[in-house]
Predict the structure of Dolichol-phosphate mannosyltransferase subunit 1.
Amino acid sequence: MSLPLATSSASFTNPHHREHSNDSVSINILDDHTTATAHLLQSPYINLHQQHHHHLSHNSTMSGQHKYSVLLPTYNERDNLPIIIWLLTKTFHENNIDYEIIVIDDNSPDKTLEVAQELQKIYGENRIVLRPRAGKLGLGTAYVHGIQHATGDFIFILDADMSHHPKFIPEMIRLQQSKNLDVVTGTRYAGNGGVYGWDLKRKVISRGANFLASVLLRPGVSDLTGSFRLYKKEVLTQLINSCISKGYVFQMEMMVRARQFNYTIGEVPITFVDRVFGDSKMGAMEIVSYAQGLLKLFVAV
Ligand SMILES: Nc1nc2c(ncn2[C@@H]2O[C@H](COP(=O)(O)OP(=O)(O)O[C@H]3O[C@H](CO)[C@@H](O)[C@H](O)[C@@H]3O)[C@@H](O)[C@H]2O)c(=O)[nH]1
Ligand SMILES: [Mg+2]
């Protein structure tokens, strides 16, 4: 498998990385699309983590024989999609990692799919795979749909709205490889992880959801509801097949099931930054169905 940028970028040329040497927090307030895009491309708007990506720069064979499939569910993400895909491809190329990005769009009214088709023309059909569905069928089933088309032996799941920055991907791969882990999950609630841009209500909901799940189900993972994760493909397939949840509660059930099956799980602290473009799809209904799903699991597990 040949990657066009693979050898020329053996030393990490990303300009961000010099800025990462200090561990200060810097949040840029982005006021319009142009500056937002420019900021996102030039510097990470959060600069908090203490991971040392430059270790990876010397490792030109990071992926070995492996291929990574990214499942990217989208609903009204037309403004975010070009940026997240640009950052993903850049990350994979700079680290010499074989990949494909599977976009699962649920017939978004903002025509996200048209943007995805344009991106597919730019990056190629082997890199951007489109697996749209006819309507909004929920986040959990979007992953189920996407994995059926995945050709990689490892699967990344992340949000398309830039809340999950691809800069954490090399660290997640490195941790997976160092211990041959079954699952590596990004965590906002351990180490240098964190959440930026959420109001108090949303923070309380997220913490509450995690607290309830960890007390009732005791899976021993610090961030149960986050969704920036790396799985071995066969592990994800088995977990998905055993999950009963359909909506956002899916993320949490996946971790609970992973513990049941005695899969090994590692955690990498991530900074979750609230989206700049568009709106969250998490509404009252998702919260109610999370609570219902949690209770169902508590009774069943
Ligand atoms: N295809 C599809 N995609 C969807 C759907 N609902 C949401 N998405 C996509 O799923 C991603 C996450 O949706 P958001 O609406 O941005 O979620 P959030 O409120 O930011 O929630 C985040 O935090 C939650 C709590 O930690 C997480 O559970 C969730 O996964 C996500 O990381 C985005 O890429 C969004 O377009 C759906 O029904 N269908
Ligand atoms: Mg979001």
